[in-house]
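Appendix B. Chain record.
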Amino acid sequence: MFIGSCVGTFFALDRKTGNVRWSYDIGRDGEQSGFHGNPLVAGDEILTGTDGSGIGHVYAFEMTTGKVRWKHPITKGAPSSYGLNSNLVALGKNVFGAAIGDELISLSAESGKLNWSFASNLAGTAFRNPQSPAVGNDRVFFGGINGTVYALAAESGGVIWKRDLGDRVSTNIVLAGNDLYAGIADGRFFRLNAKSGEITAQIKLETTPVGLPVALADSLLLYLNRGGSGGGGQTLVSIDPGLKQIRWQQRASTNWSVAARPFVWRSNVLAGTGEGEIRAFRVSDGKEMWSDTLKGTIRSFGASEPDPVLFIGTVEGMVYAYQPTKP
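Structure tokens predicted for this chain:
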């Protein structure tokens, strides 16, 4: 299991025991300490982006030993904030991510060499949370904080089409078949045709959609945050793929502390709070199936099927291997 801590250390933990197999202190490479995107497994490597006050990197670690295969420095960004804090996505032999300052980059997965970069017209802004791209059909889809969704050629970075949605793109871009999904800061959530960029449906939500929406066969799951950031959310919602209606919603008593993405596990979607609550809602209708409480602010969920075990990270630094007592 791979996890980055906010003291600047990246860990590989044994899933069965929790013992540290290897670790790497990114502070040795400059003023950086943050891991905010999900690590990406690529062959026998684990890739992750970092950010900090002086520099950021994209690292490729050898999965079994922690040896650094390559590291790509990122020196552009906002004032006193540099690096790549989006998720990394892979297509062919390349990986893609969004750097602070709203710049999309393409790197060789084998060497870390920069293939190309693309910046929205607000590049250099102080906004520190660029949205993660999506990839498919030899294209990269990127939502800029200028409110524009771009489709770019994966090999060259050339713009194929662009669509202005009217406000800052507030969610990661999601590709499901030939449909793209994206939310914006004013609360609207869109479906676009991935080939042409045409808007095919939209719905107005009560507050800003954030994080990474999860597209399932018959629903979309996403968080809403009235403050407009991805650090937490007040409401977990399920929407039909046609964006005609909200199927169900669950509000937290305070905030859902894990708004990076809804975590679907065994027909349930899991949500956590700052008080350590874990609540499992049935995907089909939102009915609460079970709940429990751990110590700490729930930050992340992971799982490794077919093991009936959840891996749960907390803001305070504790990592749990947890097995629900209820089915």
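Further analysis of this model is presented in Appendix C.
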